[in-house]
Amino acid sequence: MADIRVWAFSASVTALVLLPQAVIAQAMLPQVARAVRAEDNLGYQAIQNQDWATAERELLAGLQKNPSNVFRQLNLAWVYAQTGRKSEAAAIYEQVLKSDGNRMAALPSREGMPVKVLAERGLSLLDK
Question: Does this model's pTM top 0.70?
């Protein structure tokens, strides 16, 4: 019986210690999300402006922080394709096609498109 009380006390103390951290982390999520969106926006805006060097720099920096970000991967593949580095673009598109999952990307038209469809389209454009 004493073991049960000790465990219950221990679990309560752990919950009290972790709860404030969870609340702080949850409160920070919007700030982190805004920072990530702003960071992604720099790369996207550079693509819109056909500033390929800035786009590449921003996308590579973002991928260093989160190598599995499929949206940055697709944008980097596009930058490589636009700057004549078709083999590098193809390698990224192939990587996206082999990856697990098939997240939806929001296009400028507000239409949703599976990332693997975008990768297939990107590959097909490289052949032209």
Answer: no
Sorted by where each begins, the domain ranges of the chain are 2-126
Scored b (16 or more CB within 10 A) or e, 23-59 reads eeeeeeeeeeeeeeeebbebbbebbeeebbebbbebb
Rounded distance between C-alpha atoms, residue 63 and residue 67, angstroms: 4
One-letter amino acid at 75 equals N
Transcribe 72-118 into DSSP letters. HHHHHHHHHHHTT-HHHHHHHHHHHHHSS---EEE-TTS-EEEHHHH
pLDDT tens per residue, range 13-66: 334 444 444 444 444 444 433 444 555 678 888 988 999 999 999 999 999 999
Q: Which CATH class is domain 2-126?
A: mainly alpha
Query: What is the maximum span of the chain, computed from C-alpha positions, in angstroms?
Result: 75
